Amino acid sequence: MKTKSKLRRMFKVLSMAFLIFIQIYWYKIRKKSDEDWEKLWEKIGKRFRKTLFELEGLLIKIGQILSIRADLLPNPFIQQIQDLTDQVPPSEWKDIQKILETEWGGSLEQHFLHIDKKAVASASIGEVYQAVLKDGQKVAIKVQRPDIQSIVQTDFRTLRIIIWFADFFVPMPKGFINFKVLFNELKQVIERELDFVQEKDSLLHFKKRFNNVDTVKIPDVYPELSTSKVLVMEWVEGIRLTDAEALGQLDVCRKELAQRLIEVFLPQWLEPGTFHADPHSGNVLVSKQGEIILLDFGMTGRISKKDATYFQGLIESVLSKNYAKAVECLTHLGFLLPEADSRTMERLLAELMAFQPAQLKEMDIMALKLEMNDIIQALPIQVPTKFVFLGRSFVTIEGIVRSLASDEELLEIGKPVFIEWLKTQGNNKWSFIWHWLQSQPVFKTLHNLTEFLKVPEKLETLKEVEQRRFFQFTIYENYKKQSFQLTLLGLIGIATGIYTSHSLIFQLSVGISVFSSVGYFIFSMKLKKWMKFMHEKRRL
């Protein structure tokens, strides 16, 4: 990628970001109305979308990730970017051919009878071409786009500048997205996606995982022809799950397809290990026999054993109507902010789960979704950055499932799949029974009584912690005062040294001033950090 193109790309992204920052500040200073803010965010969304499509590359993926952050970003902005698709014009064939010949160390005729020079799919990272091997087998060749490494490096440098600026100059509200963590997560995922060896390993992992599942089809891979920039796989024909006309000709009904989708993805979301993080309609197909076909394992995520345990507990708690336990699981997973009141969240969950799917017939679904986004933003909840890609996977599959089955059928389909999955988890079924018992009135009474008896002990612990914090706070405060006094003494000494022309006094005073000024700055920073642990009354 030429230097001129890099600079132009960086300039366009940075100018867009800084213009957005300036507009937001200007609206805050002028205290604009909610209606004005909505118009501004819609305008920002349109500009953002236009820039992404113009520059393509990594920026499209960033837009896709932001589009699922309805818990943080305004609805008018989300509406403008929610249907972003990772489709870009294909590269020149001569550039693709050069990459293939370099990776294979020879001409294409050595391995193939024929290669179609027109790409069948083209995304920001790679392009796919159809070919025929010497033995007559049809294959798909996924090739990394020319100059993509350079484009990604440029975009990451630009994002670093924007994040640095936002951290220092843009006041973020409490609980807002941690841009540094998101950047590191995004960088890690994109770097994995740029290495086709890792994608090959992920494909083999999923193929082994679903080896004994008749309703799932994952293409074979040709390791001898695959490199870090080229991936050769079995060619698999499939129907998009959004193609209603073609689905109507299958022997398998739409409801059955929805159930199979849930059976494929539910274990990925609830069990520790790897999950498919990019299951859009082009990567999840259905064969004429009704098999779910999974493609493109470049973007994957991982769930830790600890988080998987809490996710499972959350589902079990909701099904057994133990909302206290559900709130506890949400807290451990990091979905609830510190100021969230557990009792209030329990009541909200209870009201949400009391909602009858039949009521959807009488409602405007889009209006309901927008209202839910508003509720999410108003509540003390957030989607932890580490679950952004899991959320992307869930939201994408949810959209496909909703296109296949009616809202009334969702619970009817989902609940038996979860129960069946639960039966395969050994001791987990006893955990489900235990959660159900905890939700019963008698158990709740006993639990509340036990918690009440523990109150004195908890208060004593809290008191001790508060005393320790106050003691440490006092130490930092005293050091800060002493540093300030030494700085004043040093300044007086400097003035005295200059007045008396005494070099030793002057030099000592300069040393004391510098040393104490550094100390004052350090202890001021420590006090500022420690302040968040202090009780509100002591902050005043």
UniProtKB/TrEMBL annotation:
Coiled-coil region: none
Keyword Isomerase assigned: no
Cited InterPro entries: ABC1_dom, Kinase-like_dom_sf, Prot_kinase_dom, UbiB_kinase
MF annotations from Gene Ontology: ATP binding; protein kinase activity
UniProt signal peptide: none
Residue ranges annotated for the Protein kinase domain, each copy included: 114-471
Domain of life of the organism encoding this protein: Bacteria
Membrane spanning stretches: 9-27, 504-523
PANTHER family: CHAPERONE-ACTIVITY OF BC1 COMPLEX CABC1 -RELATED, PROTEIN ACTIVITY OF BC1 COMPLEX KINASE 7, CHLOROPLASTIC
Protein family: Belongs to the protein kinase superfamily. ADCK protein kinase family.
Name of the protein: ABC transporter
